[in-house]
Amino acid sequence: MSKNYKVTHLIRLTNIIYECTQVYIDKRLKNFNLTKGTYPLACIKQISWYKPMELNVGQSMSAITIRLLIELVYIRKKENLDDIRAYKLYN
Fold this sequence. Notes:
By secondary structure, the chain is mainly α.
């Protein structure tokens, strides 16, 4: 066996493990009406800074996710008394 074959085989096995893990996570989160994209935000105790750039996600995607989590009552939104343009999010 060549070294390239071993590396390629290891990468394939890693991808299989990753895909199986994602399927398992999706099945478990489905019971809570969550996806693997919404779950990390649902776990945060307090998001007082909420800046999409710091979350490394698009602004529209994070707004959609946060609105969904508020509708599902996983997080709640309060006015930020320090900055009236922003909200504090809690779970």
